[in-house]
Amino acid sequence: MKPLVEYEKATTADPTPIKLLTPNPDFQKYHTSWLEDKWFPFMGSFLGAGSSWYYYSVQNRRPYYACLHMKLGAGILGAVAFYYIKQHRNAYLADKDAMYRHYIQLHPEYFEPPERKKVGELFKEWVPVR
């Protein structure tokens, strides 16, 4: 029977900062969900239509079905706006990670790999008081 965890791979992880900031080729395969690309447009349409519903219907004391074209347009506009906000956010975070990687490559003396310790070495000696 195959073990659940491959201990050789689990214990030989490279904790250097450059390794942590370098994207893995399998990242998209294992770290994205089916909802990730739909969440921002959904929230944009929800906020756009909800805010227009509140403004046009509740504030002006009109029925909820009044100005449906305004609510639909605000929902579409919100979805498009949030889609582009997400694209801009992803580009910004990719540039930031690239800047960090470049700095780490230029100054490796500041980013030495941490010393490996066992859990027992981390705790101080403890004597129970009874």
From TrEMBL:
It holds the Pfam family NDUF_C2. InterPro entries: NDUC2. It is a single-pass membrane protein. It is found in: Mitochondrion inner membrane. Keywords: Electron transport, Membrane, Mitochondrion, Mitochondrion inner membrane, Respiratory chain, Transmembrane, Transmembrane helix, Transport, Ubiquinone. GO terms for biological process: mitochondrial electron transport, NADH to ubiquinone. The keyword Zinc-finger does not apply. The keyword 4Fe-4S does not apply. GO terms for cellular component: mitochondrial inner membrane. The chain crosses the membrane at residues 39-56, 68-85. Accessory subunit of the mitochondrial membrane respiratory chain NADH dehydrogenase (Complex I), that is believed not to be involved in catalysis. Complex I functions in the transfer of electrons from NADH to the respiratory chain. The immediate electron acceptor for the enzyme is believed to be ubiquinone. Belongs to the complex I NDUFC2 subunit family. PANTHER family: NADH DEHYDROGENASE [UBIQUINONE] 1 SUBUNIT C2-RELATED (PTHR13099:SF0), NADH-UBIQUINONE OXIDOREDUCTASE SUBUNIT B14.5B (PTHR13099). This is NADH dehydrogenase [ubiquinone] 1 subunit C2.
